[in-house]
Structure formats: structure tokens, C-alpha cells
Amino acid sequence: MRRKASLILLALAVFFAALSPLLRWYAFPHLAKIPANEYQTMVLEAKNATLLDYGTMTARTVPKITIVQTLKGDVEASEKIEKTAGRDVVVWDGLSYVQGPDGKMVSKVPERYIFDAHTQEPVHATGEMVDGDPVRREGIEFKWPFLTEKRDYEYFDAQTRTTAPIHYQGTRNFRGLEVYYFEQTIPWTKVAMPRTMPVEGITPETVARTGTTRWYTTVRKFWVEPVTGAPVYGEEIHKEELRGGTLLGGRAKVTAFAGHVKMREDYIEHTVSVIKSNRTLVLLLTAYLPWGFLLLGALLMSLSLYLEARGRRPDEPTAAEPAAPQPVTA
């Protein structure tokens, strides 16, 4: 009986020991992915910002500018691309909507971002664009890979339609989470006018005819939870200028927008809560279960060897019964 139990425990030990690396190195890369139907909204604000008044073409200080960013998964489009890409694909339709203190639209820039659901690497397919312009992204955007590393990454900048390094600047604590801090600086660069302008009758084409150009620079900051690869917080020190041409009435340049953009507090709390929950699920596949199965396998192996040793030990000799007294004969 002991030998049979020992063999069963040995088989279970081998099973759990083999399951540990399979779960971490095979199951996790296949199971961890961004859902195709993801939908999220983020609200950011720039207080005491500078905004261009297109009526007078002068810059003025306003109490607050609000930026609403939405990302909506297009399941039908992702399934269509998957047929030719041969891998799980996510298609995000994004919109960055900027409004002034009076609630009126300042600008809106749509995007279509197509990427690998597991690695977050760009997938190039028809429809990939920023503000109607076809683009070919390199590097990440919006989200870092699962199990983010302490290194620089290539990050796509939608304004310039180019990719540049975003630098790892160290580990920090944010609302009880250990996060990696990344920072990217985009120097002053000439960029396209938004297709949707805030004043009726003004279009990118009419501005171009005046010879006026739009320039942009930003310092982009992200606090990224490394297990999920999701940013828990973000900021931008953002500046835009219109330069030259007849539109400015002889001036060399005028500020179109300048402000320190930060996530709104209620969205920070919601984001941290969601990421903490998702972090537990990722750790379950990468740490808790693999290490748990490995320790369980070692325990079962030890128990199996113990029972095997007990089964091979010879039985102890039984003590001899004392002889009955014999009668004494003369």
C-alpha cells in the first residue's frame, strides 16, 4: 500500500513541477491579451492654460482646458485583420477631443491604432491612421507590454506621426503601487493643422494658403504599472504655436495652446482600482500559480520519497516471549 501511494505522489509531483514552467512560459503568453472589445475614457485637464482666440488671433489665459480621450475596440475590424495577420489583433478607434472653458470644441483628432493583443506591437493594416492621414506606426502607443522592463521603449507621437525613444527614469511609488516612470521629450517640430478647426470657414487648406504653419513640442510623462503594462497616471507639458504667414498680421509667432495637462483626480482613482485588479490576474499566471505548483511538486516529491523509504525498511524483529518455567526434578 505504501509503495502504491508513493508512486501516485511521485506522479503528481512530476505533473505539478512540469506544469509550473508551462504555465509561466507557454500559457501566460497565450492567455494574457487585451480584449478586442475594450472601451475606456480618460479626462485630462490643463488649468490656467494659454489658448488662442481665433477671432482676434491673440493668445489669452483661460482657467481650464479639458481633453477627453476615448479608446473603443472595433471587434469586427480586428477579426477581419486577424484572418490575414495570423495572430490576435486589437483595433482601437481613438479620439482626442479638446474643449475650452466655455465647453466649445478647440480641436478633435481621431486615430485608428492596430496592434498585437499579446505583445502590443503595431500591426500594419489598411485603416491605420491619425486624423485621416495614413501612418505606419513603430513602437508602442497608449500601453506598454505586459511585464514591462526597466529600459527605454520606442513610443509613437501622434502629432508628429513619428516614433522616438521614451526613457525609463526609475522606479517610484504611486498610490500604493510600484510603478516605472517614463519620460519623452518631443522638440519643436512642424506638424499638420488639425482637419477640424474651431472656427467655421477656417480649414487647413485656407491656413496653408496664408503661409502660416503650426509647430508643437511636448514633454510626455507616464507612470506605468510594470506587471500589466498599463499607465496609472500621465502628464504632458504641451505647447503649440502658429508661425509666420499673413494670418498673424506680421507677427513672427503666436501661442495656440500651452498648458500642463494632467489626469483628473476621479479618473486617477478609477484607473488605479482597475489596474490593481488586473495586476492580481497577471501575477496569478506569472508568479502565484507557477511558484505554488513548483513548491507543491517539491512537497509531494519529498512525501513520496519518505513513503518509499518507509516501505523499503525491514520489519523490526518481534521480542521473544519468555519461556514458561519448567518443573524441577529431583
Mean pLDDT: 90
Shape: elongated
Query: Whole-number radius of gyration?
Result: 32 Å
The order of strands across the largest sheet is 6-5-4-3-2-1-12-11-10-9-8-7
β-strand amount: 35-45%
Please identify the oligomeric state: single chain
Largest sheet: 12 strands, antiparallel
* Percent range of helical residues: 25-40%
Order of helices and strands: HEEHEEEEEEEHEEEH
Uncertain regions: pLDDT < 50 for 5+ in a row? none
Distance between the termini: 56 Å
Could you say which structural class the secondary elements and strand pairing correspond to? Answer: alpha+beta
DSSP helical segment count: 4
Quantity of strands, as a count? 12
Structural overview:
The protein is α+β, with helices and mostly antiparallel strands. Helix content is 29%, strand content 39%. It is built from four helices and twelve strands. It has helices at residues 2-31, 75-85, 204-210, 265-312, and strands at 39-53, 58-73, 89-99, 105-116, 129-130, 133-134, 153-157, 162-174, 177-191, 213-225, 230-243, 253-263. The chain has a twelve-stranded antiparallel beta sheet with strand order 6-5-4-3-2-1-12-11-10-9-8-7. Helix 1 runs antiparallel to helix 4 (265-312). It is elongated and about 140 Å long. The protein starts with a helix and ends in an 18-residue tail after the last helix. The relative contact order is 0.16. The mean pLDDT is 90.
